Structure formats: C-alpha cells, structure tokens
Amino acid sequence: MDQNIIYALEIMGKGMGSIFAVILLLTFIVGLMGRLTEHRSKKNS
Fold first, then answer.
1. 3-state DSSP call for residue 1?
2. What is the pLDDT of residues 6-40, one digit of tens each?
3. How far apart are CA 12 and CA 29, in angstroms?
4. From CA 16, how far away is CA 42, in angstroms rounded?
5. Which residue has the higher pLDDT, 44 or 13?
6. Three-state secondary structure readout of the chain
7. Distance from chain centroid for Cα 1
8. pTM for the full model?
C-alpha cells in the first residue's frame, strides 16, 4: 500500500476512536444527570 493511504487510515482511525469516546462520555453524563434528578424529585415529594 502507498504510505499516504496508511497515514490516512491512521488519522481516520484516531478520529473515529475519538468520536466513539465522546459518545460514551456523553451517554455516561446524561445517565448520571438523569439519576441525580430522579433522586432529587423523589426526595422532594
């Protein structure tokens, strides 16, 4: 394979990995916020 294609695939892989990590992080944060607000609403009622 051409060296430029290998470099392009490496950059693409890093970009896709970063996007996957951000999606997982956002999912975790939204779930945590949902649990916190659920806990607070049960506490207030």
1. coil
2. 999 999 999 999 999 999 999 999 999 999 888 77
3. 26
4. 39
5. 13
6. CCHHHHHHHHHHHHHHHHHHHHHHHHHHHHHHHHHHHHHHHHHHC
7. 32
8. 0.72
